[in-house]
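Changelog entry

Holo records now carry the ligand SMILES as an explicit input line rather than a separate metadata file. Below, a converted record for zinc ion, shown in the new format.
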Amino acid sequence: MEINSFYCEKCINHVGCISVEIEKDGICNHCKNPDKYFVISIPSELKEQKFKKMKNIIEKIKRNQGNHDFDCIVGFSGGKDSTYLLYLLTIKYKLNVLAVSVNSGYMSRVAFQNMKQTVEKLNIEHIIIEPPIEVFTKLYKWYIFNHNSNDLPIMKIICDNCTDLIDSLVIKEAARRGISYVFIGLTPDENARYFFEIPNEKLNHSWIPKHWSSDFFKDEERKWWWNHEEFGIKNIPRVIFPLHVWLYNEREVISTIEQHNLVRKGKADPLKTNCTLIWAIGMYDIIRFGFHMYRVQIAKLIRQGSGDRGHWLQIFNRLEPLLAKGEFNKSQIDRFLKQIDMTKNELIELARSKRKKDPRREIIERLLKFKGIQL
Ligand SMILES: [Zn+2]
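Structure line, unchanged by the conversion:
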């Protein structure tokens, strides 16, 4: 592999990342056609229509203000987007918000600090739901032993599933308290699964995944999932993603929350606020697929103009070889492996054995060699 044609000249994607191709001019297919790979493109009329809908929702909430303890619940992770959403709803729209966080047991220290600072500064009520650590741990562990995809990194699968469980807990809290609206800070490009709102049909079903009916999971673990049957139909809230239709600019989001002192400067970085699991499952993905999935995510930010290519290229090129050996954020990796009762070598061996069965294994192995990873 030649270094010249290895990296995309515009982002940090490289040859061998799933779905990435570097074209003759040195630019990757994601940079050339970003909509095709990440977002569902939304017709402007539909966006306009939902924008108006959002305006009506806010007006309706304001008309009924004072009848309830809270106007709405906001799912709050301590990351930049949910912080920004809290800011808009409380400061700009003057809603009486209950911030609800879910501690999976793998929340980052920075996310905790951010949360504390934000709720103090905005002077809002905040609750943290904390299921026993086994609940989320088993969700992850099941996928580690049952990951058999050649084109979906484990991180993608686990994150989607984990998000559903977190949302389940937030929605349940609203249903229990009779709060009609749940707002979640998904950004405009995070619309692959839903646009603007979780459809009613989806909320009128149990979210317990099929594989959770196996003996691996217990009843007291299954009960944490959203299950419409626990609540009267009247108590099922609407779940809405306002940032899908409001003006969103990442740089402005960060500068707004920093300026208002909702998070300290530099603490809005997703590598710092995201769940600590990204290191252990990222380690699996590097050995299995040759790259950390965040490379493709951060590439997206760079493409949108909110990240410096040189800076991130250096970070990922240093991070991946260390992480492959479990030596980057080691304490968090070790803690997770202990929770799932697995050694580092067992994780490496598992990822390697899956790689050996992948039709792309030669490409992946060349990639690892190029990165100086000998596993
Ligand atoms: Zn690119």
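Spot-checked after migration. The chain has two domains: 44-259, 276-370. The radius of gyration is 21 Å.
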